[in-house]
Amino acid sequence: MSSQKPKAPVLAGLDLGSTTVKFIISTVSPDGKIEISGMGRAPNMGVKQGVVVNIEATTDSIRRAKEEAELMAGVQVQDVWVGVAGPHIKSFDSKGMVAIKNNEVTQADIERVLEAAKAVAVPGDRRVLHVLPREYKVDGQDGITDPIGMSGVRLEASVHIVTAAQAALNNTMKCIHRAGLKVAGMVLDTLATSHAILSEDEKNLGVCLADMGGGSTDLLYFVNGSVAHTSVIPVGGSH
Hints:
It is built from five helices and 14 strands.
């Protein structure tokens, strides 16, 4: 196996399914396109409905899928992006409001209003995965998707916050670390899928994405181009 450092940036992704672990390696071209260079999969009995129930079995499956993907890609990876799913995912809406500096909305104002929106009481046993903007208001004018450059004195944001159970994430990370990898980041499985398969028109018109796995079906709802709700049905292909 070649251990030479590739010229293009490398991204690795991991999907911990209830029946199969899938590992993918891709390179990023100079124009930002992702090209898949390796893929590996291994059967897995250590995950049930998106939650790790057997550390050793899951670690072994990750290791085997990783090695298969590395063999195909001809590179070794240390960092991996991990998809998160399961009934422990909970989401809710929140709002934030800040005064606009210099009477014109900048990126700094958007970052401040999103911070204000996510400053809500999240139970200690849960971790925020995503803060997804739904819409902005400038001085009461609603329905704004990109307020940068607009004039006003008050900026409001409606966001959708996705949280996961900290214990479930800890067990997932433990398996990944034991398999010799570091977690580059975690992303909601269905959110990642939506970037791959949904068009902007579909999101704007309103659509429900159903991702049917072995042990559960994960749902993601788009309204007016933004994520409005997430839910999980504990029934999948194995049933």
